[in-house]
Each structure stands twice: as C-alpha cells, then as structure tokens.
Amino acid sequence: MIERGASAFANPRNAAAGSLRQLDSKVTAKRPLSFYSYEIMSMEGAAEPSSHTEELELLKKWGFKVYSRYRLCEDIEEAIDFHTSLSKERDTLPFEIDGVVIKVNSKILAENVGSRSRSPRWAIAFKFKARREITTVEDIVVQVGRTGKLTPVALLNPVDVSGVTVSRATLHNADEVAKKDIRVHDTVRIERAGDVIPAVVERITTNTARGEVFSMPSRCPVCDSAIIKDGAYHFCSGGLSCPSQLKRSITHFASRGAMDIEYLGEKTVGAMVERGILNSVEDIYKLNNKSILELEGFAEKSAQNLLGAIEKSKTIPLARFIFALGIRNIGEHTARLLSDHFESMERLAGASYEDLIEINAIGPEAAGSIIRFFADKKKIKIIDSLLSSGVTPYIENGARSRKFKDMTFVFTGTLKEFTREEAKDIVISLGGRVSSSISAKTDYLVAGESPGSKYNKAQKLGVSILSEEGFKELISK
Ligand SMILES: [Zn+2]
Prior knowledge:
Helix content: 25-40%
Strand content: 15-25%
Bound molecules: zinc ion
Largest sheet: 7 strands, antiparallel
C-alpha cells in the first residue's frame, strides 16, 4: 500500500478485516490473505473429534492450514516450559505473537468446565512479557486526538524494541506523568506490547539536568481553544474548528448516523484536508467538480456521485443534524431527544442549562456540553454557514410527520434513488413504521428492482404495491 502511495493499514487485523469487507470480491481475491484454522464450529455427517488435537488433525486432513507448532502437554509444567521456549523464538517467527493459548485437550472436560459470558474457561491466553527497553526522554509534547483528548507523549531517543524503532511513547494523562514524575532528560523504561502504542512504564534514573515538572497547557497547542478537564483527562474545546480534530470530525459529520454523505469516508476526508480543500464541515457544501477531480482516485463519474450525495444530504432530520455537529456527550439517541424537545436549532441553541436538565435523560454532563458548544461563536458561525448553504433540517414531528401515522411500510428489492436506510428514514419522518415482514396489516409494499418473495406474499394478501416512482409520488404529496 505504501509503495502505491495509498495509506497503510494500522495493523494485520485491520488489513484482514478491510480486505474481507471489500464489496468487490475480486479485490479481496487479490489480497494475499491466509489463516490458520483451529476450531470447528459445527459439523455434520461425521463423528465429532473427542479432543482438540484430534480436531486439529482433522482440519489438516481436510486441507486447512493448521499451525504445526502446537504441542500436547501432559501437565502444566510442560505447558510453562513450552511457553518459555517459544518466547525465546518469538522474534524468528514469521508473524507477531504476544503469547500462547493453553487449552483443555479433552472435549468432554472442556464442555464440563464451560464458559464465562465472554470467554471460555477451557482456554486461556498465557501472554509473554511485554517487550521493554531503556532510553531517555528528549521532550514531552501534547497530542490532540480525534475527540479533542490531549495526550502527553514522550519523544524518546530512538530505541530498538525487538526490531521496531520506538521514538515516541504515551504518558496517558497529566496524572500519570505526575505520579511517575517523568521529565525531560530522564532515563525511562518503555514497553511495547503487540499492537498497543508504546508506553512509558517508569523512571529509572534522574539525570542531573532534569527538565521542569510537566504541566498541561491551558490552551490547545494546535488551535488555541480553551482546555476542559474531565476526570483524569484534558480536552480541547475547539471541536470542529481544531485542525487536529478536523479530519475525524468531518468524517463523523459525513458518517451514516449523521449527515450520511455516501462516498465521503475517512480516506477521502483525509486526502481533502491534507490538500486544503476541506478546512471545515462548511467546505463540504462548497466542493465542486474541479476540486474533487484534483484528488487521486476520482474520475468524472465518481466526482458526480460524491456531489450528488452531498446535495442529497442537505435535507436531513434535525436529530441527525444535531448529532453530526459532534457536540461532546451527545450521541444519536440524545440528539433525537433534543430534536423532539426543542424542534428547532434556534431553540436548542438558545436553551438554558435549566431548560436542558429538565429533559429526562439529559444529565449535567450533557447539558454542560451543549451550553459550552452554543456559547462558542465559531460554532454558531459554522451552523449558520451550513444553513445558508442549503442544509435544511426538518423536524420529525412537524405537520408532515403525521402523514403516514399508523401506516406500515415494507421494502423489497433495490431502489435506485434511495438506500434502504434513507427510505426508512423518510417513512419514519412522516410518522410511519417500517417492518421487515409482510402481513395483512401492511399498508404498502415498496418494490424496487428484483423484489424478493415479499412481492408474491403482498399480492396474495392484497397489500398495495408501490413502485419506486409511486413511493416518490406518495412522499412528495
Ligand atoms: Zn484544538
């Protein structure tokens, strides 16, 4: 990926999952994925293996790849010995491992031992010691994450931790730095465990010229917004206007539960922010064919698709618009409550702390977040700009919202102009219900291209069947 100039996967798990999730199976086939199998989930037509080793041999016989280095141990000492010897070979293996799984071999015993809610009692991970090295701290900087969380990071004299050069390690939060009393020039022990970000474990020696005691900045180092403390953590209050939070915020804004702008995923947003095409969520509605075509991977057709998706996102339920703004502590559900209660952005923006706390399920934390958000003039400017770009939030319990009151819709087949999710949203916004199965109580079956068995069932039951055109006509009336 790096050679091709694309962004690399964060870790092997993401690489595998990302490859399997490809819509085009031909793309998946091109990726050199491989796996070791170790468990049969269910089988029919043959005797089930009575032990785990038998199970592995059976898998091998069937042609599945099975890792050959497993060992049947007679007792726990033997298992510990195996763990010790494998930990010494760890660096020579063709893949990264962080330990050994010890399992009960007999299937009957394993079944008797049973499982806890999330993990089996008959298998347990015996982890290797995290890899540790010693180095010195050259500087302590503060990083701003996607939620605005500030993380103190130690910049280190680069050190090799079993094949990986580590030059930064997290210090988690201000309390941790204080507790471990880590300062510039100190000699520290750092740790790297599997996929986890390297961390500073402890200070080993105090060098003569110690740096000053670390303290969190009072303004965001990136955007100069005020810093808010929440528990052990500090947050930049800049939200959408903080460049560090920008990529992630825009991605959130465009995501499915929010403005739902198809084709505007993390990668595209990242590329657009880097190119300076997107500096704020407002810029999404200023994109044009020319600016999109400058990006790698975009052609005339895909640029048109993106612009179409952006245009379509303008008409949006108020609840989703509130959620899209990325107000701290305001998830999809709370956004819906706020939309139902205030019924307009203006009224929400003007709400007092008391007004907010009055709503069931809005606690002091959420209320405080909302007040802080709307007290920020920059946020108001962004909202105004979005509205004047044509974003039109609608209230789901307005007059139109009773149009489909007590009506049930069922969808089948593929619609050309809507995703299922969009069509569902429209029906709900007009007061109707969407069901997944046909019954005599169904009011309308909306049938797209290549409808399923629901079509025949609807005919039998005498349910009204609408084409996509018919549906469009019905909702626009
Ligand atoms: Zn900031």
